[in-house]
């Protein structure tokens, strides 16, 4: 009851300090208050009360009911074993590239050893706050400004590691440290903004050039495919035309094998000759004509002679290769064809 009464009496004093503009760290020091010295004490959970007997450390009271000897025993310190969050005030720091910035943070700590926290340092929270500020300035002086923004988490871990090494003798451990706000000079902010804009313009130009390149590649690929398809179509057309001509020649060859084949060939040749002269006569061109234009039978006879010469040559080659013989026109056939045109 008396402890609760004293705890309630400490609240107005804490509000008074906060209203006067004192830092939060000063108000936090009032959280640990001393109870009245009585015979029976009830220690709250997650608190450790340090008892001195005749001015010398005697023991640390556990949570629950505890008995003290009046006059001889005295509760000297009350330590909270809960995790405590402390605001680290803003401070100026200089990075390795000579940039001055204002930075603050939040420190989370816990008391592990109430004895060392009571007798190892006068004011544990104030000491740990000052240590955090000095450590932060020291760590920021080792890195550049870009590293501060890029490796913020690593910077927090380095600060926690350094604080824990120094605060081990105080019975306090730093659980984590978080950088809350970083304020840069206006000229540095303007320079960073210009850098960001330049980087974005660079990316835009690169993306535009890549788009143009991809478009040109697509157009070239389309032309290539078009030419390939056109060449394939021409090849197929030529192959089909050649196959058609070959088939026609084969049919013509089979027709010439018969007895009346030479007469049919002579008739076709004469018809083509007359048709060619008809087409030439329709155009106003200078022509070179043979002397015997009217002698159709003579021209056909010359053509038949050429055919006979070719047939003899093919006959000799077929005998060598063992292929079927090509018939050689007989004189009777030649005479019959001559009669047709006479």
TrEMBL record:
Record-annotated Band domain positions: 38-196
Compartments, as annotated in UniProt: Mitochondrion
Keywords from the UniProt entry: Mitochondrion
Domain of life: Eukaryota
Gene Ontology cellular component annotations, sorted alphabetically: mitochondrion
Region described as Disordered: 318-342
GO biological-process terms attached to the record: mitochondrion organization
Matches recorded under Pfam families: Band_7, Band_7_C
InterPro entries: Band7/mec-2_domain, Band_7, STML2-like_C
CDD domains registered for this protein in UniProt: SPFH_paraslipin
Family: Belongs to the band 7/mec-2 family.
Protein name: Stomatin-like protein 2-like
Native species: Homarus americanus
């Amino acid at each position: 009851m008396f402890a609760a009464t004293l705890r309630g009496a400490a609240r107005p004093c804490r509000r008074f300090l906060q209203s006067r503009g004192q830092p939060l760290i000063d108000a936090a020091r009032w959280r640990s208050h001393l109870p009245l010295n009585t015979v029976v004490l009830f220690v709250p959970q997650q608190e450790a009360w340090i008892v001195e007997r005749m001015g010398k450390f005697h023991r640390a009271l556990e949570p629950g009911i505890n008995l003290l000897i009046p006059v001889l025993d005295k509760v000297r310190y009350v330590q909270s074993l809960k995790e405590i969050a402390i605001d680290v005030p803003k401070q100026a720091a200089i990075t390795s590239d000579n940039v001055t910035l204002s930075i603050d943070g939040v420190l989370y700590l816990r008391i592990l050893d109430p004895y060392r926290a009571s007798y190892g340092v006068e004011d544990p929270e104030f000491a740990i706050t000052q240590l955090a500020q000095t450590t932060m300035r020291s760590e920021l002086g080792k890195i550049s400004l870009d590293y501060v923004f890029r490796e913020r988490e690593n910077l927090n871990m380095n600060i926690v590691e350094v604080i824990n090494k120094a605060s081990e003798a105080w019975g306090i451990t730093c659980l984590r440290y978080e950088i809350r706000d970083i304020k840069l000079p206006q000229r540095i902010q303007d320079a960073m903004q210009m850098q960001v804009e330049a980087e974005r313009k660079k990316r835009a130009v690169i993306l535009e050039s890549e788009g143009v390149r991809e478009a040109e590649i697509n157009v070239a690929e389309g032309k290539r495919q078009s030419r390939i398809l056109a060449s394939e179509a021409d090849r197929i057309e030529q192959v089909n035309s050649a196959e058609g001509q070959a088939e026609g020649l084969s049919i013509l060859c089979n027709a010439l094998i018969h007895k009346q084949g030479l007469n049919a060939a002579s008739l076709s040749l004469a018809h083509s000759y007359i048709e060619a002269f008809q087409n030439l006569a329709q155009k106003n061109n200078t022509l070179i004509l043979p002397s015997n234009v009217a002698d159709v039978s003579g021209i056909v006879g010359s053509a038949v002679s050429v055919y006979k010469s070719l047939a003899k040559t093919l006959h000799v080659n077929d005998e060598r290769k063992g292929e079927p013989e090509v018939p050689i026109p007989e004189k009777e056939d030649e005479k019959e064809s001559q009669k047709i045109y006479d």
